[in-house]
Amino acid sequence: MNETKIRTRINKLFADQRPTVSHVTEIHTHHQHPIGHRLHEPHTCPAPEPEHGVEQSNKHNGADATDHKPKFIPVTKLEDDQPIRAAEFHPNGQFYATGTNSMALQIFTYPKTYELRENYETHEPTVLMKRKKHHKGPIYCIAWNGTGDLLATGSSDKTIKLTRFNQEVCNIDGDAVELTMHKGTVRDLCFMEDLSNRSSLLISGGATDNKIFITDCETGMTFQTFTGHSGTILSLYTWGGAMFVSGSHDKTIRLWDLRSRGCVNVITAPSASGAGSGDLSQPIPNVTVAEHEDKVIQARWHPTDFSFLTTSADKSVILWGLSTN
Fold first, then answer.
1. Beta carbons of 323 and 71 less than 8 angstroms apart
2. What does the pLDDT look like over 242-253, one tens digit per residue?
3. Contacting residues for 300 by C-beta, under 8 A, at least 6 apart
4. Are the beta carbons of 206 and 83 closer than 8 angstroms?
């Protein structure tokens, strides 16, 4: 498919959308998270692993009810011999994938995370698939497309691997397609969906050249390159439509529009002298809900449940769930 046809398809798909303030205000979380809503689509994969330690705990002996604040507890914990950098939930919430410094790609089943008690026994997740040497370098990022049948990984080996995921058997179909347009470590990925044509566009960015590439997953052809950042691109996010946002080591956030083929807005970090109540570079109130023994690298909300994944330099990835005590 040539660039002209792809451009025509993008313009047709997003013809009725324009950059608005409402688009910008939606960029406040990595995932929109409807608390309390649980919707699991039926599938033929292995059933979720049994619950551990969900027996009714003894009543607290004279403890003041005000002392019992909401607490996230570790549901599963996977440890590796090297740091685990990347993790991402499947769109249907029934699986999640991880990527490690040891170059391994793994997919796990998502267990039950409701009716958790403080005496819950943390256990290892159930492995559905493992590729020990999926890349030639550490895996830095993972992304699923909106329909969950494409999985992309980015690595310090300067490549992206696109694989087909078969949800019925919970495994990867065929060999990976390797994309080699990056000149440095691929730091983040996200998909932009064209559901009317049952296809996906892959957005990727990283180090060295500080460029953002747009690739048509149907053809494997990179048809757009965005420049503007002067530092490593650390994060990418799209909230639908033709726009996406990028964050960089150059201390800027840029909003991009595929229709205009460029940056439509730049948000810069405020100076120290201009610090105000909305300055996220200054200390802000926070509550610790989970901890690792070393720095946390990534955190990802579950698409429907009140649970999340964290990866860490302590060589672990932990699934956290909210205690019901």
1. yes
2. 899 999 999 999
3. 30, 31, 87, 88, 89, 96, 308, 309
4. no
Residue 206 amino acid letter: G
CA distance 208 to 248: 12
pLDDT mean values, one per 10 residues, the chain (325 residues): 50 44 31 35 46 42 50 94 95 95 95 86 94 95 93 97 91 90 96 76 94 92 92 92 92 91 88 58 79 95 95 96 84
**8 Cβ partners below 8 Å, 6+ apart?**
none
What confidence tens digit (pLDDT) does each residue in 124-149 have?
999 999 999 999 999 999 999 988 99
Burial of 43 (0-12, 13-18, 19+ CB in 10 A): middle
CA–CA distance, 220 with 1 (Å, rounded to integer): 10
Q: Is the pTM of this model over 0.85?
A: no
Closest of 270, 271, 230, 238 to residue 255, by C-alpha = 238
Q: What is the pLDDT of residues 9-40, one digit of tens each?
A: 445 544 444 333 233 323 233 344 333 333 33
Q: What are phi and psi of 8, to 5 degrees?
A: -65, -40
**Identity (one letter) of the amino acid at 197?**
N
Residue type, 30: H
CB–CB of 317/300 below 8 Å? no
| 72, 321 contact by CB (below 8 A) | yes
Q: How many CA atoms are closer than 13 Å to the CA of 174, on its beta-carbon side?
A: 11
Strand 296-301's sheet: what is its strand order? 72-79, 316-322, 307-312, 296-301
The amino acid at residue 207 is A
The phi-psi region of residue 251 (left if phi > 0; otherwise alpha if psi is between -120 and 50; otherwise beta) is left
- What single-letter amino acid sits at 313? A
User: What is the number of other CB atoms lying within 10 angstroms of the CB of residue 119?
Assistant: 14
Strands 212-216, 221-226: pairing is antiparallel
